Write the structure tokens for this entry.
Amino acid sequence: MELTGIKELNKKVADESLFIQDLKREIAKVIIGQDETLDRILAALVAGGHVLLEGVPGLAKTLTIKTLASCVSATFSRIQFTPDLLPADLTGTLILDPKIGDFKPRKGPVFANLILADEINRAPAKVQSALLEAMQERQVTIGPETHKLPDPFLVLATQNPIEQEGTYPLPEAQVDRFMMKIRLGYPTKAEEKSILERMAGGTAPAVRPVATPEQLNRARAVASSIYLDEKIKDYIVDLVFATREPEKHRLASHKHLIAYGASPRATIFLAQAAKAHAFINGRGYVTPEDVKTIGPDVLRHRVLVSYEAEAEGIDSDKIVRAVFEAVEVP
């Protein structure tokens, strides 16, 4: 792309991404710290990808998503996943209408712009799988009819990693639908003191809507046009192939640790997420740093470790870090 084209794109991105700063300011009224997590969620929002938030109880996973929803003038549904939940409780069902003497669809809570799937791993696989069509196809089938979901449509799911009793592991097919899997850590001492001072009163500060679905759709269109250089494309493909063929990317010692590498969907999502990360930072082009910053969250749930890795206490995060260290940066 010519320099003039890049300058025009930069200006367009700068104009369309102004609302991102407003969103950050509003969310910061309630959420302390977690800047990196918020950047990832906003990038997913712009890229149109779903997010899985994983962290121990009490890290404000639910509060973060509810606050984001309050800052966007969009429809919002919170679905509390429990062991007795049924697929129809998500998608809806057919009910008999006595007036017409026939069945009509009653749409479920999945028909909203932003969906909070709270503690998603507390429901059985058949319920989790009910989200598959919605997440991938942006549509839901109720009886003989297929219904389009609102646009934009984003699933933000939470799960607690430390509780095993009463939980069901997410099927690989569903985990792969999430653009990113974000792991939340504990706040710093200073952040925790600020949390205490702000939240000890029992009520969270109020936030106001500062973005609209129309802005999100425009942002998505602009982000998709962000310039991706051939070298960056090669870098993304090399990263994904390093998870499948580690021995060809100076990672021969990791071959026995990887059961399955990342799929082509990872390549697509990594490119889309990198563009979205460039967008929220006001740039019309993707840098290797965008890929390195957002990459671990896109790849961590797509690299399945072997039994040997589990025995050695090596998780997918360690393998993904090794991949980024081994693959040459353009």
